[in-house]
Amino acid sequence: MGTLQTWRKAYGALKDTTKVGLAHVNSDYADLDVAIVKATNHVECPPKERHLRKIFVATSAVRPRADVAYCIHALSRRLAKTRNWTVALKTLIVIHRALREGDPTFREELLNFSQRARILHISNFKDDSSPIAWDCSAWVRTYALFLEERLECFRILRYDIEAERISRYAPGKDKDFSRTTELDGEELLEQLPALQQLLYRLIGCRPEGSAVGNYVIQYALALVLKESFKIYCAINGGIINLVDKFFEMPRHEAVKALDIYRRAGQQANNLSDFYEVCKGLELARNFQFPTLREPPQSFLITMEEYIREAPRVVAVPTEVLLLTYRPEEGPSEDTRISNDEPEPYVPADDVVVSTVETVPLPPLPPQANINTGDLLGLDYSDSDAFAFEQSNATLAIVPIDSGTAPTFNSRAGQPNDFDPTGWELALVSTPSTNISAATERQLAGGLNSLTLNSLYDEAAHRASQQPVYGTAAPNPFEVHDPFAMSNNFAPPTTVQMAGMTQPQHNPFGAYQPYPQQPLQQEQHLMFPSSSNPFGDVGFGAFPTQLIGLRCLSDMSKCVGCFTFTPQRRGIAFLFDLSNEVTKMVFEVSKVPTTPFDGQKPGTSGLRKKVKVFVQPHYLHNFVQSTFNALTPEKVRGATLVVSGDGRYFSKDAVQIIIKMSAANGVRRVWVGQNGLLSTPAVSAVIRERGSKATGAFILTASHNPGGPNEDFGIKYNMENGGPAPEAITDKIFENTKTIKEYLIAEGLPNVDISAIGVTNFTGPEGQFDVEVFDSASDFVKLMKSIFDFELIRKLLSSPKFTFCYDALHGVGGAYANRIFVEELGAQKSSLLNCVPKEDFGGGHPDPNLTYAKELVERMGLGKSNSGVEPPEFGAASDGDADRNMILGKRFFVTPSDSVAIIAANAVNAIPYFSSGLKGVARSMPTSAALDVVAKNLGLKFFEVPTGWKFFGNLMDAGMCSICGEESFGTGSDHIREKDGIWAVLAWLSILAYKNKENLSGDKLVSVEDIVRQHWATYGRHYYTRYDYENVDAGGAKDLMANMVKLMPTLNEINTIVKGARPDVSKVVNADEFEYKDPVDGSVSKNQGIRFFFEDGSRLVFRLSGTGSEGATIRLYIEQYEKDPSKIGRESQEALAPLVEVALKLSKMQEFTGRAAPTVIT
C-alpha cells in the first residue's frame, strides 16, 4: 500500500509540474495559470499564501473583467477535470477565500459564470483511490454544496453576509447588527429561507470517517465554521424582526413566517450538534462555542392560533436572555502552524470565543408593543458587535432583572396560569455556576428525587395492602437495604435493561415485544409482590437477583445505578441514559448443528416461508455460513448493518444476528430504529454513514407477502452497498451444505431497537457496540443532494398538481412522510398505506396493476368509476421500497419505458446528472427502449442478467449512471441497489422541469404527455409480462428443458409460429442468454431463453429466483413500433398475436396446468 501511495504522490507531482510547464509555454495568462496550479496542487496541505495573493491580484478591481472571467474559467476547468480529492478541495478553498477576501468583482463574475455552467456542482465527484480518499471525497461534495448555496444566497440577498461590516453604535440610533432587522415583511419572507438554507448546507459540512482528522479538511472547515456566527446572527435579527411583524401579516404570509420560525428552532439544535463535533477537532483550539437550545413551544402555539384566525395576546417575559461580546487575546504563539513556507492563512483569525458570564442590565422602560427581546439569543449592542466582528470575540448571557421587565397592558384571552415563557426564546444559555447544573441533574432515565421518593412510598403502600405468604431468604450482602423495596418494580422503559436470558418467541403465537414471565418469577423469589404500579407492558426481563440497588442521598451526584449478577460472569452498568452507555461482558458459545437442504441464495438472497426460518438453527446456519464465506478482515473488527423491511420475524432475526455478530468478532452493528431500513437506505448507510460499514444483513423478501404464514428473507450486501456477487453467494451455499457448528453469544441480552442510542458490550475479543439510529435521516440527506427539492416543492404546491403515493404498508412509509410531506410540502392525505406493518396489512406489497389496487382505483385505472378526478401523478413502492410503479392520470408507465424516459431527461432535470451520464444498462428481459435512447444520445450501453449485483460492478467501474429492469426496479449510481423512492423523485423532477415555466398556465404537462412525446421521438416498444407464480418446480424445469431442445430447430419453430398466427413474422434466431462481465470477466450462463423475430419482436422465457416456494415462470413479450401512426394502440391488443404464439411455442398449459397467468403487467 505504501508503494502505491508513493507512486500516486509522485504521479500527482509530475502532473503538476507538467501543467506548470505547459502554462509557461502556451498560456496568455501564464502567471495566473501557474498560481492556480500551485495553489491547488496534489500536496496534502492548505494553499500557500503567496499563490493565493497572486490570484487575488489577478481578480482585483483594477484588472480587466476578462482577467477575472478567465480565472474563474481556469478554476472551473481544474475542478471539473480532477479526480483527486486534494486538488478538488484546494480548488474550493481558493474559491472560498476569494469570495471572502477577494474583490467583489470576483463574486459578481462567479455569479454570472454559474448561470451558464454550475462550477460548484460536483455531486458525482469521487476519489476511490483509497478508503481515506473515499471519505474525503464525501466531505468535498458537501463543501461544494455549501459554497454553491452561499452564491445562491448572495443572489437572493444581493449582499454578502460575511462581507457585511457591522458599524459601531452611534448615540441616538437604535442598536442594529444585521440588515435583516430592517427588512419589511415581504423581504423577510424571501431572505430568511435563503439564509436558513445556507445554514443547513453549513451544518451539513460535518466530516465523517477518515475525513475527521485530515488537516486540509479541518482548514476548510474552520473557514465554514467562522461564517456560521454571522449567518446565525443574520437569522437571529431577521427572526426578531419577523416576530415583530407576525401579528400584522395576512394569513398566507403568517403561514410562511411560522415555518421559518419553526425551522429556526430546529436549526439551533442542529447547529449545536455541529459545534459539538467541531469541539473535538484540532481547529477547536481557536474557538470556544456557545451552548444552543431549541426555543420553547408555547409561542409556537400562539402563532398557530393566530393563523387559525384566533389572535392571542401574550404577556411579556419576566426575563430575557441577551448576548454581549468582548474581545480577548488570540492564541499563543505555540499554537500557530509552522511551515517551511511563510505561515499559511489561519481561517479562525487567531480568535476565540470566551466563557459565558452574567452581566446585569439596567431596567428597560415600559413599551406599548410586545418586546420580543432576543428571540434566538444572539442580540448585542453595535459597539460589542463591532468588537466581535473584529475578533470573533466572546459570547455572554445577560439576564434582565425580572422586576424591570416591560409588561403589556392586557392578558385578554389568557388563563391565569398562562406560561409566558414562550417569549423567552433565547437559544444560547449556559449557567453562570456549576451549582444549578448539579441540582438540576436527573437520575437515570429522567428520574429526579421527587419522582423516586414517590415510587418508594407507592411500593411501601402496596406491600402493606397485600398478604405475605413468605419471603425469600435475606440477602447476606444487603440485610438492611432501606431501598430494596424499589426492586419490586420493573424499571421505566428508559432505564430497563433486557434480561440475561430470553426465551425464543413462538412466531405463531400471540406477539409480545418482551416476555414478562422471567421477571415475575425472579422478583417473586425476592419480594412479596411483583406487581407493576404503572401497569406498563413491554418491559424486558430484568437481570436475575438484583443485589445492591441503592440510591445516593445527594441526588446531584447520582449518575445511575449498578447491578451485579453472581450467576453469570459479567457486570452490567446502568448509567444515566443521556450518556447512552450500557456495558455487559458476554461469552461465546459453539452450538453444534446439521445442514438444511435448499439454502441456496437466489438473485435477491434466501427466501422461504416463515415456518421454515423459525426452525431451530435454520437462520443461524445461514448467517454463520455467510460469515464463513467472507474474508476475516470483513468480519473481525468490522461494522455491519442489520435491518430490513419490518416483516414478521424481523425483530427476532435482528437479535439473533446481533448475538452471532458479537460471537464472530464483529466490532459494531448498526440497526435502524425498530429494525427498519429500506433496501436502498441500507446501501446508502453502508456507503455514506460515518466510518464505512463492511457489509449488511438485509431482512426482506422484497415484494413477497409477509406474516406468520407468509415469506421471510435474508441477503448479504457488500462494502460497496450492493448485493453479494455470485462468487460469495456460491461460497455461502457450499458452506450451508457442510456446516457443523455456529458461534453465538447466547448470554447477550436483547438490545432495545426501538430507542436510538448506543449499547456497549465487552467480549473475548474486546468491545462490541450496537448503535440504533434514525432510519430515515441518512437517506433523506442523500436524496436532497441528488434532486432539486425546491423545484419539486414548487410543483407540489401548485393547485393544478395533485399527487398520490402508496407504500403498500411497506418500509417505504417510514420515508414517505419525511420526504414528501415534511421536505416537499405534499399533503398528508396524498399518502396511502404508509404505516409499515409486519404483514403489510394483509396485502401483497408488489407495486403492479394487480396488487396496488387502491392506488390503481384512485388513479382512474380500475374497473369502478367513483366520479372523482384522479391525481396528476401516482406512484407506489414495494415491501422494502426498492421497486416502484409510476402512474399518470388514467395512464400506466411500463418500467421499461420509465427507465428510458428518466435516462433521456436526467441531464436537464436532475442536478446529480448535470455533468452528463457515464452510461446506461438494463436487464436482459427489459424492453429495448433504453437501447434506443443510448444510441441516440451516444451513451455506453450494457445488457446484463437479472440481478442488481451486475449493475453494481458497472457502477463501481464508473461505466454506468442509470439502470433498470422490467420488474419495476430503477436506480442510479448513487447507491448499489434499485431505489423506489429515487425513481418517484426522478419522475417528479422531470415533471417539475417540464412545468417550471408553466405552473401558472392553463394546463400542466402530464405524465401521459411526457411518455407520448418520448414515443414520438424514439418509437414505442409494446411490452407485457406474464407471471406464472408457484407452479410445480418439476413442470417448470421440464418446460425450460423443452425450449432449450427446440432452440436449434428454426424450421420447426417457424412451423409452430405460422400454425398459431400466420400474421406474425418468422423467428430468425434463438439462444440462451449468457453474460461475460466486462469488469471482472466472470461468466453467467443459463439466464433465459430468447426468440428474436424478423420485425424486431422478441419473446423471453425465464425462471425467477424471487419466490419462496415452488417456481415462477416469467414470459416477456415485446414488439417495436416506429411508425407514429401506430404507437397509440393498447398494449394487450397490439401484442395479442405474439402472446398466442408464445403460449403455443412453450406448451405452457401442458407443462404447468395453468390456463392463465397469475399476474399480467
TrEMBL record:
PROSITE patterns documented for this protein: ENTH (PS50942), PGM_PMM (PS00710)
Protein name (database record): phosphoglucomutase (alpha-D-glucose-1,6-bisphosphate-dependent)
Domain ENTH, first and last residues per copy: 24-161
Localisation: Cytoplasmic vesicle, Clathrin-coated vesicle; Golgi apparatus; Membrane, Clathrin-coated pit
Alphabetized UniProt keyword annotations: Carbohydrate metabolism, Coated pit, Cytoplasmic vesicle, Endocytosis, Glucose metabolism, Golgi apparatus, Isomerase, Magnesium, Membrane, Metal-binding, Phosphoprotein
Primary location: cytoplasm
Reactions performed catalytically: alpha-D-glucose 1,6-bisphosphate + L-seryl-[protein] = O-phospho-L-seryl-[protein] + alpha-D-glucose 6-phosphate; alpha-D-glucose 1-phosphate = alpha-D-glucose 6-phosphate; O-phospho-L-seryl-[protein] + alpha-D-glucose 1-phosphate = alpha-D-glucose 1,6-bisphosphate + L-seryl-[protein]
Pfam assignment, any one: PGM_PMM_II
PANTHER family per the UniProt record, alphabetical: PHOSPHOGLUCOMUTASE, PHOSPHOHEXOMUTASE FAMILY MEMBER
Family, as annotated: Belongs to the phosphohexose mutase family.
Keyword field contains Ubl conjugation: no
InterPro entries: A-D-PHexomutase_a/b/a-I, A-D-PHexomutase_a/b/a-I/II/III, A-D-PHexomutase_a/b/a-II, A-D-PHexomutase_a/b/a-III, A-D-PHexomutase_C_sf, A-D-PHexomutase_CS, Alpha-D-phosphohexomutase_SF, ANTH_dom
UniProt EC number: 5.4.2.2
Primary role: Catalyzes the reversible isomerization of alpha-D-glucose 1-phosphate to alpha-D-glucose 6-phosphate. The mechanism proceeds via the intermediate compound alpha-D-glucose 1,6-bisphosphate. This enzyme participates in both the breakdown and synthesis of glucose.
Necessary cofactors: Mg(2+)
Subunit structure: Monomer.
